[in-house]
Each structure stands twice: as C-alpha cells, then as structure tokens.
Amino acid sequence: MSDDGRVRISKLLAERGICSRREADQYIEQGLVLLDGQPVTELGTRAHPDQTLALAKGAQQLQAQRLTVLLNKPIGYVSHADDDGQYPPAVTLITADREWVDPKTPPRRAAPFATRGLAPAGRLDIDSTGLLVLTQDGRIARVLIGEDSAIEKEYLVRVEGSLDAKGLALLQHGLKLDDKPLKPAKVSWQNEQQLRFVLREGKKRQLRRMCELVGLKVVGLKRIRMGRIALGPLPVGHWRRLGPAEVF
Length: 248
What we know:
By secondary structure, the chain is of the alpha+beta class. It has six helices and 16 strands. It has three domains: 7-64, Roll (Structural Genomics Hypothetical 15.5 Kd Protein In mrcA-pckA Intergenic Region, Chain A), CATH 3.10.290.10; 66-151 and 227-248, Pseudouridine synthase I, catalytic domain, N-terminal subdomain (Alpha-Beta Plaits), CATH 3.30.70; 152-225, Alpha-L RNA-binding motif (Alpha-Beta Plaits, 2-Layer Sandwich), CATH 3.30.70.
C-alpha cells in the first residue's frame, strides 16, 4: 500500500475475487480492466480501495471459457508434474475419452476443451485417490488453496492400529506438524477400519503424518468432498466439468 492509501489494482482484483493477480496483470496489459469506467493499461497502477473496479466484456468472455474439471484421481498419478517425470501427472487423464457425463442428464454434444494452463487446485499424494480439482480459473484456485481459504476437505482414511479416545481427541485438536499447531479437525469413525476427516487446511501428507503421531498406519486415503462439491459417482480415472451452477 502506498503512503496515500492506494493499492495495486491487481491486488484489489484478487482480494475481491474477480480474478487472480496473474490474470489481472494479463488483463491490464490488454486494456481489459476498468477503473471507474476507464481502461487501465499500465502494470503496477494503484487505486484507492473505494474506487470501482471491473473487467471489460472481453475479459469476462475469457473467464467464461476457462475450464474447471473434477477428476477421480487413481493411485500412481501425481497432482503436479514432478521434476524428473518419473510419474505421470493427473492432467494427462484429462482426455476426451475419459470425460464422464452423468447418465441421468439429457445427452449433449461434447464441448471442445483445451488443457493448456489447467493446474491442480490442491494436491493428492501419488498413493491417494479421489477428488482432485484442476482449473484454468485463478478465482477458483484462490477459493480452494488461497492463504485465507476456509474450504472444507473431506476424506475417508483406512487405517491399521488401535486408537483410544485420547488419540481420537488429539486428531481432532492438539497435534503439531513442523512445530506449528494444526487447525481443529472433525474426525470420527466411519466403520471399524476407516476414519472420516474434515479439514480446513492441507499441509503436505498431513493426514498420514497425523495418523502416525497417534500410532496409526494409513493403508488407504480417498478425498470425497471439497466445499459443496462431492466426488459422487464419478468413476476412478475419469473426469467431469464443473457445472455452471456449481460453487465450492
């Protein structure tokens, strides 16, 4: 923030959930950001927080074309491409023959799509399965993995070992990872071998490390929900498009 209270327009747009900072800079370079109704074309331009910001029609059309997909990730795929290319990234599963359309919906023509810029909003380990969101839309990525994100992520975790009431209470609140306290979690038994976790954060291999701290070994992990979006009947290894009325 400058001495007179003005803030970079790209930051304001991101904070208001209009687009990501990277997208804002791209739109500014194309003259597609309006400040009080006038186009902004210079990167780094600042504005007062009470000024009116909007995207021009061209930017709105570009945003409407951005693809967001829900993938039921199988074991053996990594969320992000690794440096040595040893394991296939999940985005390689986003192909026309793997698109799933709910048989309960009316048949429709397959819409074209492009996977360039499609990136995972969050991660699932190579040995985990379930719901992985990949998107070209910075707004959705911010909602799911932004610093201030409070979106719930729900998991079913098969475990080996014994867990008493004290251990269950620790899973719910009281554990630390990397010397930092974890946020409270909802943890309950789904059945004799499976725990249900609902988290509002996503540290690297968090669930496996949490279970290790209370003497449990994870033998299976599946994410079944992110926010309001559930995995549902989506088959393993297939994907579907996020519907226009669906919000996280």
